[in-house]
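Input/output pair, single chain:
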Amino acid sequence: MRISKINLILMATIVLTTISCKQGNTPTDNEKEQHSEIKNDSEMPNKNEETEVVKNVKFNNATADAIFQHYIHIKTALVNTDVNKAKQGADMLAEATENTVLKKVAKTISDNVDVEKQRIAFVDLTAQVETILKGNVSSGEVYKQYCPMAFDNTGAYWLSKEKEIRNPYFGDRMLKCGSITETIQ
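Output:
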């Protein structure tokens, strides 16, 4: 059986993509910027944590601050594959905003008991929250991160207060798959 050069290149690309995002690999120097590495169990997200408090980022108004706090709560819950915590964070976010689109997307998360459906809605939530945050950061940084493998390789973004990758679309299955694509200041 003869394999064409194109098929060989395609297979190599698929293998390299899979390996680069597979949890447990040690990144090369070039990959360290794209994939953070958990050095020990103490760096793992705490499954018992009620919400991740955002300390290093300050906003121009209390509404943007509250929205981002609740967004991080939802993101952390999805990283931990915790449906109930995601629902709680989404309920709090819906209460904190007057934005009807953001409220509707948050309610989609809080009304779902399927974590995969929550993760799908989180894509829209991220887009809405990003719009609110841009221009409202008074100090610190928010990192826009991206996983190319999310949703059958269509990819998806999320926001984070830290550079370390904690993928909400795969949770512990591919915790470190992703890269920073933008820094919002």
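Residues 28 and 166 are 19 Å apart (CA to CA). The radius of gyration is 17 Å.
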